[in-house]
Write a structure and sequence with these properties.
- The structure holds two protein chains of two kinds.
- By secondary structure, chain A is mainly alpha-helical.
- Chain A has helices at 21-29, 34-62, 76-81, 87-123, 131-153, 175-205, 218-250, 263-297, 304-317, 332-360, 369-392, 394-400, 404-434, 440-466, 481-511.
- Chain A is globular.
- Chain A starts with 20 loop residues before the first helix and ends in a 71-residue tail after the last helix.
- In chain B, helix 2 (34-65) packs antiparallel against helix 3, helix 5 crosses helix 7 (325-336) and helix 6 (295-303) packs across helix 7.
- The chains are: A mainly alpha, B alpha+beta.
- At the A-B interface, helix 3, helix 4, helix 8, helix 9 and helix 10 of A face helix 1, helix 2, helix 3, strand 7 and strand 9 of B.
Chain lengths: 582, 368
């Protein structure tokens, strides 16, 4: 079965080099193989994560002390005043942290990197529906990212990642850098739309024989729901930043009250995209969660249909809750309606969490790195979700809006949710992607540091936010200092954890032991092929004969039945049978 | 790197800061909203704790009880259960809907200002708050918080206060954590909020909560709550006296008009140049041209700052177009008083005035 012994060159690993160095580079640059494109996205988004992380560390470093800065660079005077950056530099740092993390990391990380790699594999397809379009999406992403990076290299933008008007359209010096940044966002939007379209068609048309809609892994359902949002919501962002750019360049009054525009209109436009975008970020993470919990607890996901439909439900409701970002900015009636709808959107997310916990019941739970991340997700995402109730409720939101409570809340959802799920998924699928195992022990050390560091960093932010510490402050009153110090120290632990992971992965690539095709005993189709997969994914077109989580009835492919024993066949009628092979 | 480390070690040597008594946060119950708001807040808190402990407790129990053991398969169990699933969908839904109506009720109370409220006009600008009271009073006292001199505003206790707010440039947001109130402040539009401070003698922080640029984190204020009589007296004391000399008036306007957010009265540079020694000095602009700072220069820089930008600074100053002549002259006089040349000129003028006054007095006396 090993790829290297096979004669047909299509049966070699997709990582097999094509001739010399330049030939290989050229091969990667022009590849239409979804796996290679996925890997390229993976490294690009990881680089963005690193960059955004460095900015985050600098932000936290600045906030270690409460006082104001006099000058920019680290000089004698800053030593005296205890400051590192000027407020202007600080404002650029948090803007870049936000913009990079949102537009270059979280939005593309799971759908574009893991979705590209695993969506066709899990569907039993040879590739996505439009492989060339897929490569184009990648180049559009790179172009958009380049625009953003240029604006950073030229000195950065200080508007916050939300580019709120009229602030973002005033000030001559930042004028053209904001244009660079929004142009970058505009271009990135196209990448997102095209990837979404590609995935929707792939899910509809390229499922392997025997795979009905409810035989799809839940990761696919999540990516499918995400793609719908990407296709429908992203154009609004495109239009919005385009209007912003037109206003800045040509002084056409759209959002700037001085020109007769309406700044709140901008906020409506922006959040009409950016709230659904929150679910573009979290839904794929939820999809990964279902895979991790199912495989590592060896249990059929409890309430499969409820989990699948809740993804679609979230996607639908996500379009009508944008106004909850503006409770302090819009009228009372609008606020009341949006508050009501916001309470509704909590339900499908809650259903998912209940289902995951119920899946653990009577499972066979392995505490390896992917599963630890999945359980870590349950912890952090529950906190993120529950603290959302404070923000959906109108009077408490008036108090907490634009404070560190919000910052903590969305980091618990975006980082404690999406980024944690991403790390879990990366450890889950790493052996499949690169054909190498990693050091389980050191990966667990990394997990422990990340988990502890994350909670220290952001839980303290809930406390100071509830006490009224506003966000986006370069300096603050002394009363908040203990919380800020704890948060900054947490960020160091967090960074250390990610560096441990980095070394684990690099070590794995260099010296990792060869990965078996199915190291965890998974039942979805990606585990039936080699690790790493061959160029055309499967030696023979797969035929789906069981559900994705029928662990009670099916011995996983390539696995020793002794390692993955099945429970006794059903005797009692009182137990509902799981889906059996047919 | 070493300087960075030094920084981290020597950070406790922070700048002067005069905290308000009692600090800031949920423990401060500054307004009449607090009771209702906090009841809702803590209800949501304990509800969250309940569900969190339930979920995590169950998970921890399952993780331990059903941990993987070699050769032991997972046990069979139902993979869905409609009544159970309906229960955990409907119960949270009912709870959340109940919460919505409760929260909406509290919200409407917070929105409807009583008719007899004391009205104060609030202007926000980069990066200062200015409150104008119904008798024209403006706060003249300042306090140093977060390394910035910020105004101290007075409000009456046990009397609703309604703020009528607008901004002269970008969006700001007025936030008093101890009152649990916050509302955005827009350019070219009024927004109104109200509150009733509950205890005389207390002080509270006011923050800007909507990001507005370089000085965002220093755009604060202190609110002090006074008994009604003291409040009325305070308003009297804080009206600008017509008898103030231009320099004295300029010194007050320097603080109440937000100049101090960017300009120091010594020669240190902030967002803008320090004012000491400016008058009479040579100024160089970004286009390379130069001029000597006289009254005309100061006037044009106040009214139309974006016309010419000084070398080494950014074009961020808002225009003070529309400032009354008396205030404009007072500010120019104040800036002049901060340089040796200006001081001399002012002294000369003052001597002349004094001489003239004496003369007039003598005339008066002689007429009697």
């Amino acid at each position: 079965m090993s790829a290297s012994t096979h004669d047909d060159h299509h049966d070699v690993s997709y990582l097999h080099p094509k001739g010399g160095f330049f030939a290989t580079v050229w091969d990667w640059m022009t590849t239409i193989d979804h796996k290679k494109i996925g890997v390229m996205y993976l490294f690009a988004t990881l680089f963005a994560f690193f960059l955004g992380g460095v900015f985050a560390l600098l932000v936290r470093m600045e906030l270690f002390s409460p006082t104001k800065t006099i000058i920019d660079a680290v000089t004698e005077e800053t030593v005296v005043t205890g400051q590192i950056f000027s407020p202007d530099t600080y404002n650029r740092l948090f803007t870049l942290h936000g913009a990079i993390m949102v537009f270059l990391f979280i939005i593309p990380a799971i759908p574009a990197a893991m979705g590209n790699f695993f969506l066709p594999l899990m569907l039993g397809a040879k590739d996505v529906a439009f492989p060339r379009l897929n490569l184009m999406s990648w180049y559009i992403y790179v172009t958009g990212a380049a625009f953003s990076l240029i604006s950073i290299l030229l000195g950065g933008v200080d508007t916050g990642w939300t580019f709120y008007t009229p602030y973002s359209i005033q000030g001559d010096e930042e004028h053209w850098r904001v244009v660079f940044m929004t142009t970058g966002v505009f271009i990135l939007g196209f990448s997102s739309i095209l990837t979404g379209m590609n995935f929707i068609v792939t899910v509809h048309k390229l499922r392997a024989p025997g795979m009905g809609w409810f035989d799809m892994p839940l990761f696919i359902w999540a990516i499918y729901a995400t793609s719908i949002i990407q296709v429908l919501a992203t154009p609004v962002l495109g239009v919005t930043v385009l209007l912003l750019t037109v206003e800045r360049l040509f002084k056409v009054g759209i959002f700037d009250p001085a020109l007769g525009g309406d700044p709140v209109l901008y906020q409506h436009f922006f959040w009409f995209y950016s709230h659904p975008a929150v679910y573009i970020m979290i839904l794929p993470g939820m999809g990964i969660m279902s895979e991790l919990i199912g495989v590592h607890a060896r249990k059929k996901i409890f309430g499969y249909r409820a989990v699948a439909f809740s993804s679609l439900g979230i996607a639908a409701i996500s379009f009508i809750v944008w106004g909850h970002h503006m409770f302090t900015a819009q009228g009372e009636l609008a606020s009341a309606i949006f508050s009501f709808l916001t309470f509704l959107v909590a339900i499908p997310s809650a259903i998912k969490v209940f289902n995951w916990v119920a899946t653990l019941y009577k499972g066979s739970i392995a505490l390896n790195t992917p599963m630890c991340y999945a359980l870590g997700f349950l912890f952090t995402f529950s906190i993120g979700g529950l603290t959302g109730i404070f923000l959906g409720s109108l009077p408490t939101d008036l108090h907490l809006h634009d404070t560190y409570f919000i910052v903590a809340h969305f980091h618990y959802v975006m980082m404690g949710g999406t980024a944690i799920a991403f790390m879990g998924g990366l450890h889950h699928w790493w052996p499949k992607m690169f054909g190498k195992m990693y050091s389980e022990r050191w990966a667990l050390v990394g997990f422990a540091l990340v988990f502890i560091g994350f909670n220290v960093t952001f839980f303290s932010q809930f406390l100071m936010g509830a006490d009224g510490m506003p966000r986006r402050y370069a300096t603050y009153v002394d009363e908040f200092m203990p919380f800020h110090r704890a948060s900054t120290i947490g960020s160091w632990i967090l960074a250390l954890g990610f560096f441990v992971h980095l070394f684990v992965f690099v070590h794995s690539l260099i010296a990792g032991r060869k990965a078996p095709p199915n190291p965890w005993g998974g039942l979805t189709l990606e585990w039936t092929t080699d690790s790493p997969p061959i160029e055309h994914n499967f030696h023979h077109e797969p035929l789906v004969q069981h559900g994705p989580y029928d662990f009670d009835d099916v011995v996983p492919p390539h696995c020793d039945p002794a390692d993955y024993p099945l429970p006794e066949p059903i005797e009692s009628d009182s137990l509902k049978p799981g889906r059996t092979m047919h | 790197m070493i300087s960075l480390l030094n920084n981290l070690c020597g950070l406790l040597a922070s700048a002067p800061h005069v905290p308000v008594e009692g600090g800031v946060g949920l423990h401060r119950k500054g307004s009449t909203f607090v009771t209702q708001h906090d009841m809702l807040f803590w209800f949501i808190f304990w509800l969250s704790v309940f569900f969190f402990v339930l979920l995590m407790g169950l998970s921890a129990y399952f993780i331990f009880k059903y941990r993987r053991r070699p050769g032991v398969p997972a046990q069979r169990s139902a993979s869905h259960n409609t009544p159970l699933e309906l229960t955990w969908s409907v119960v949270p839904l009912v709870i959340l809907l109940g919460l919505f109506f409760w929260a909406f009720h509290v919200y409407m109370d917070m929105h409807m200002a009583p008719g007899d409220a004391e009205e104060i006009n609030v202007t926000a600008q980069k990066w200062a708050w200015s409150w104008v009271y119904d008798n024209g009073a403006e706060a003249q006292e300042t306090r140093r918080i977060a390394d910035q001199d910020v105004p101290v505003f007075a409000v009456p206790a046990d009397k609703p206060v309604r703020l009528i707010m607008h901004s002269t440039d970008v969006i700001h947001s007025l936030y008093v954590p101890d009152f649990r109130v916050k509302l955005d402040v827009f350019p070219m539009r009024y927004t109104t909020m109200w509150f009733e401070a509950s205890k005389a003698g207390e002080e509270h922080y006011l923050f800007c909560a909507e990001y507005c640029g370089s000085g965002h984190s220093q755009m604060g204020a202190v609110i002090k709550v006074l008994e009604m009589n003291d409040y009325l007296q305070w308003k009297q004391d804080n009206t600008l006296d017509d008898a103030l000399s231009p320099v004295e008036l300029g010194g007050i306007l320097y603080r109440t008009r937000g100049c101090n957010a960017c300009h120091a009265t010594d020669d240190r540079s902030g967002e803008g140049p320090g004012w000491a020694g400016i008058y009479g000095s040579e100024r160089r602009f970004t286009d390379g041209s130069t001029t000597t700072a006289d009254e005309n220069y100061l006037r044009s820089q106040i009214l139309d700052p974006s016309g010419r930008t000084l070398e080494g600074y950014r074009n961020v100053m808002p225009s003070y177009q529309g400032m009354p002549e008396r205030e404009l002259n007072a500010l120019i006089a104040f800036i002049k008083s901060l340089s040796a040349k200006g001081r001399e000129e002012l002294d000369a003028v003052e001597e002349e005035i004094e001489a003239a006054l004496e003369e007039a007095e003598e005339d008066e006396n002689s007429q009697d």
